[in-house]
Each structure stands twice: as structure tokens, then as C-alpha cells.
């Protein structure tokens, strides 16, 4: 039969508790170190990412700046070239404008002298045609009136018994003066009919089919349109005609022509085209300007047709 013995043991847990406490402290310190390291790693990664983004932004900005600078330099050089070309074209246009103004003044002066000469010739011809009337009014009518007044003053101072004789004398004198005036009027009418016949023979309606040279007064008109589309009318009137009257007459004639309408005949268009092409070939203009003038002329002729 077994004997049971009671063994009393005394177990001290303080060292183990101390060790566990020490281990717990170390684990806690390790956890704090891991958390601190994780935080530092995150901060380092954020700083690195920020640095990388800054570098990428700086590189992109530098690239865009260099590309924009290159394009700006290219556009600037192109703009300077165009400005130089425009300046040369401006100088050329100013030269053409000055040349056209000089030609216009010269042509205006020449046609002004021609029109003035034509006006003087027409005025002299009108005076020559009306000269018989002037002579008749100045000489015949005045002398006849004076004679009538002189004779009519005799009747009141004659004696009563000679009144019938004086009246017969006055009647005969008046009859003679009347016949004289009638003869002069007849001569004047015959001269006027002769002059009228000569004028009608030299008018356009009664001209023969042969070539003739005619002189007609005219008013030269030109229009210009500025950059805003405003149309200006310039009229060079002949001597003795005001600019206002000339403009009014030209505008009335122009409106009448637009209302009535006019189209040139085919032979006239053909002759005009041949003459224009001949002048264009003989001119010393550059080939490009000739082609442009020919193109504009053909477009104008087609629009009229």
C-alpha cells in the first residue's frame, strides 16, 4: 500500500513577473520604434514624391518655355519679314499713287485746256450765228424807232388845213419804213435758215457714212472707295461750270443711264478687247501685273455679257 507524502513547495513568481514586465516594456519600445520608423518612411516617401513632382513640374515648365520661346522667335522673324514686305509694298503704292495723281493733274489740265478751247470756239460760233440778230436790233430797230418818233412829232405842230397832207406823208413814210423792216426781216430769216441748214448738215444725225472728226464738250468723272466702303465722287468740270452743277448733272445722267440700261454691241466689245490686249502686250509692266489685268478685264467682260 502506497504511502502518500505531502510536499510543500514555495514558488516565487516575482522574477517571472519582472521578466514579463521587462519583455512587455521592450515590446512596447519596439512597437513605438516600428511606428516611428513607419512614420519616418511615410514622410520620406512623401518628401521624395514631392521632390519628384517638383522636378517633373520644373522640367515640363522648362520644356514648354523653350518650345514657346522657339515658336515666339519663329513668329517674330516671320512678322518682321512681313512688316518689311508690307513697308516695301506701301512705298510702291505711294509711288503709284503719286504717279497717278501727277498723271491725273496733267490729263485734267490738258482736257481742261481742250474743253476751254472748245467752249470758246462754240461761244464764238454762237455769237457769229446770232450776229445778224444783234445787228438788226442795234441798227435797224433803233433807227426805225427814232424815225417813227421823229415823224410822229411833226403832226401836232402843222396847220389844220395841212393835217391831211401831213398824215398822208406820215403814212407813206411808215409804209416805206415797214417795207424796209420787212425786207430786213426777210434777209434775216433767209440767213437764219441758211445757218440752221448748215448746223443740221454738221450734226451727228445727218453725218455721212464716211469717217468724221467731232468735238464735243464733256465732264470727266472718277470715283474712289476707301477702306470703310465710302464712295467719293470727283468731277472735273469745264471752265465756267461749277463743281456742284457738274456733279448734279453727272449724277442725274448716271441715274438715267442706269435706269435705261445700255449694253455694247458685239463688234464694239471685240474691238475693245483687241485694243486692250494690244496695249497690254506693248506695255512694259511686269508679267504678273499683265496677267492680273487680263484676268480682271475678262471677268468684267463676262459680267457685262
Textual characterization of the structure:
With 305 residues, the protein is mainly α. A two-stranded antiparallel sheet has the order 1-2. Helix 1 packs across helix 2 and helix 4 packs antiparallel against helix 5. The radius of gyration is 58 Å and the shape is rod-shaped. The N and C termini lie far apart (152 Å). The model has no long low-confidence stretch (mean pLDDT 75).
Set down the secondary structure blueprint:
Blueprint: H1 14-152, H2 163-201, E1 220-225, E2 231-236, H3 243-260, H4 266-282, H5 287-304
Helix pairs in contact: 1-2, 4-5
Can you describe this structure in just a few lines?
Helices cover 76% and strands 4% of the residues. The protein is mainly alpha-helical. Strands 1-2 form a two-stranded antiparallel ribbon.
**Overall spatial form:** rod-shaped
Discrete helix count:
5
Structural class by secondary-structure content: mainly alpha
Question: Which sheet architecture does the biggest sheet show?
Answer: 2 strands, antiparallel
Low-confidence stretches: none
Helix content: over 70%
Side by side, the strands of the main sheet go 1-2
For the terminal residues, how far apart are their CA atoms? 152 Å
Strand content: under 5%
Please compute the radius of gyration using only Cα atoms: 58 Å
In round numbers, the mean pLDDT is 75
